[in-house]
Structure formats: structure tokens, C-alpha cells
């Protein structure tokens, strides 16, 4: 500190002093100001309570959370407590995590995607990236979905940086059809909303064949003639030998589909929209629930489908950018 004062007396500028001592000019100015104010160089006592954690401990807290985003503040406290005379409180750890940009968030629920399926998703996205609007308009999109009669699914939280919701390590894998009160099958296309069919009991290959024979095919022939491509996922009842034979007999073109790819199927957005529209409407039984679903389904405007079809090039590009992992869609 005294060397800074001597340097100024010898005519060295604050800029050159800052360069010489490898500090900022404001630091040099502060040292000189205190010297001229108090007649000697000193470090004033800082105001406020001293931090109970060191910079090293703060870095360790952030490191543990980044290595395992599912750790709670309590878990982190247990991890860092070894060898510490005084362990910081859970509240302090939460403050350090927030200061480091790691907030508790609801993780995105996305299907687990194996390496094989990631490669298949990439191949599919690349093959369809440059499809024209007319080609997408030929596709009939289909799927099943369940709707709970009462309540909702539980909410989980995870700590992650901002803008990282769809990073695979911050997602929670899900599996289809964990149960529910009302199970439905539906289809959509460029002409708008197709039929919504209630599935009674368990979806079997025979039940699925009956739906396609008596629900999907008459609607498809009426609105698309024979010039359509049918999209379905790879559930066993969809891809069985019996169904392959049915598609062959009926001369229905089936789109090749990569497994674990709900984000590439635009009907998934329709299911979410449908769920929102009936979420605040009470039903005392499954029949009433299906009636609410059917009414809301029929009220979804064709413009919703048009916008979803327009999103297909972006969905393909997103799958490519994500290297086959799940996307935001």
C-alpha cells in the first residue's frame, strides 16, 4: 500500500499504478483517498455481518448441485458437512444456489430415449426436414391419451440454470398410460379435428383394429379419399402382425415412426390443449368426463391444426439440433 503512495508522490499516474500492481484504477484511487483522509494507509472495517461460507465452500455447493441436479439443499448440506466445524444452514445453501443461478424448477417430463431410438429420430427428422406443406397435409395423426377423472399428477422440482428445461439431465423420463379413468383415441389432419373415440377397458390389438376399421377409415375416406398417410406410434397393439396385415388389406400407407417421439407428433399438443379446456370442469363419473372431452374436442378450431402443421419443419430441426434427444415440443 505504501508503494502506491510513494508511486503517486513520484508522479506516476493512477493508470500506470493500476497496471504495475495488476489491480483496477478504482482500487488505486481508494487507497490514495484513504491515505489523504486519514494520513496513513489502512483497511477500513467493512459494514454488515461476515459471510458464514468461504468462496471455496460456495464453489463446492454449486459444483455438487451441477453434478447432481436432483440433490436438495438438505442433501447438499450433508455432503459438505464432513470436516466442517460449522455447517451452513439449509437457508444459506439455498441462497448460494440462487446466487449461482440454480433455481428450483419443475423438470420437463420427457420419454427416456435410448441411443438406438435417438439415431432413428435423427434419421426421421432429416428425411422429413424438407417436406412440403402439401406432403404434411396428407398425414392423418393419431394417438391415445388418458384423462384423470379427479385430481392431477404430482409435481416434482429440480434445480437447474435458466434456459435449460429441455437439457436431458434435467428431465424426468415418463412412460405411457400409467392408468386413469378415461382412455380415448383420436386423430387429426389438415381438414381439422377427426373423431374422438372412447376406449372401454384395455386397448388390445382387436380393439385397435375395430377403431381403425369403424372409426378412422370411414372418416379418412370421406375427407382424404385414398390419398393419405396414416401416422401411429410403435405401441405393440399398433405394430403387430395382425395390424400389418390389416393395413395391407385396406391399402393404407403407414408412416415409418421413430419410437419415443411424442414431440414429433402434433396431436400431443392437441391432448394438452384438450386437458386445459376441461381441467376446471367437474365430472362425477367417466361418462360425464368423456362428454366434456368430446365437446371440447369438437370446439378446437382448424387454425390450431394449421399452426401445428406449420411447426413440423421446426420440430424436425429441433430434433436434429438436440442430436435425437427430446425437444421442447
UniProtKB/TrEMBL annotation:
Transposase Tc1-like domain boundaries: 58-130
Domain of life: Eukaryota
Segments forming domain Tc1-like transposase DDE: 138-285
Intracellular or extracellular location(s): Nucleus
InterPro entries given in the database record: Homeodomain-like_sf, RNaseH_sf, Tc1-like_DDE_dom, Transposase_5, Transposase_Tc1-like, WH-like_DNA-bd_sf
One cellular component (GO) term of this entry: nucleus
Pfam families attached to this UniProt entry: DDE_3 (PF13358), HTH_Tnp_Tc3_2 (PF01498)
Main location: nucleus
MF-aspect GO terms: DNA binding
One GO term of the biological process aspect: DNA integration
Protein name (record): Transposase
Species this protein is from: Ancylostoma duodenale
Amino acid at each position: 500500500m505504501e508503494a502506491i503512495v510513494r508511486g503517486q508522490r513520484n508522479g506516476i499516474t493512477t493508470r500506470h499504478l493500476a497496471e504495475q500492481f495488476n489491480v483496477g484504477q478504482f482500487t488505486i484511487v481508494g487507497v490514495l483517498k484513504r491515505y489523504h483522509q486519514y494520513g496513513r494507509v489502512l483497511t477500513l472495517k467493512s459494514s454488515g455481518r461476515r459471510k458464514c461460507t468461504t468462496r471455496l465452500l460456495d464453489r463446492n455447493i454449486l459444483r455438487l448441485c451441477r453434478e447432481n441436479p436432483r440433490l436438495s439443499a438438505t442433501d447438499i448440506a450433508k455432503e459438505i458437512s464432513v470436516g466442517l466445524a460449522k455447517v451452513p444452514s439449509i437457508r444459506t445453501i439455498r441462497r448460494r444456489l440462487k446466487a449461482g443461478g440454480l433455481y428450483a424448477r419443475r423438470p420437463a417430463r420427457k420419454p427416456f430415449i435410448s441411443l438406438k431410438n435417438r439415431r432413428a429420430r435423427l434419421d426421421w427428422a432429416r428425411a422429413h426436414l424438407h417436406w412440403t406443406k402439401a406432403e404434411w397435409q396428407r398425414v392423418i395423426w393419431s394417438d391415445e391419451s388418458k384423462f384423470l377423472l379427479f385430481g392431477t399428477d404430482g409435481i416434482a422440482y429440480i434445480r437447474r440454470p435458466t434456459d435449460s428445461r429441455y437439457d436431458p439431465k434435467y428431465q424426468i423420463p415418463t412412460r405411457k398410460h400409467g392408468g386413469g379413468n378415461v382412455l380415448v383415441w383420436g386423430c387429426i389432419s389438415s381438414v381439422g379435428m377427426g373423431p374422438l373415440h372412447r376406449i372401454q377397458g384395455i386397448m388390445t390389438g382387436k380393439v385397435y383394429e375395430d377403431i381403425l376399421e369403424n372409426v378412422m377409415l370411414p372418416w379418412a375416406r370421406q375427407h382424404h379419399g385414398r390419398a393419405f398417410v396414416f401416422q401411429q406410434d410403435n405401441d405393440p397393439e399398433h405394430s403387430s402382425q395382425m395390424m400389418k396385415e390389416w393395413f395391407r388389406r385396406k391399402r393404407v400407407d403407414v408412416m415409418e415412426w421413430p419410437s419415443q417421439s411424442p414431440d414429433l407428433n402434433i396431436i400431443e399438443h392437441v391432448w394438452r390443449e384438450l386437458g386445459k379446456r376441461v381441467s376446471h370442469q367437474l365430472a362425477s363419473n367417466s361418462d360425464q368426463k368423456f362428454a366434456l372431452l368430446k365437446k371440447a374436442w369438437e370446439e378446437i378450431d382448424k387454425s390450431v391444426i394449421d399452426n401445428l402443421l406449420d411447426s413440423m419443419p421446426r420440430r424436425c430441426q429441433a430434433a436434429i439440433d438436440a442430436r435425437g434427444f427430446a425437444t421442447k415440443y
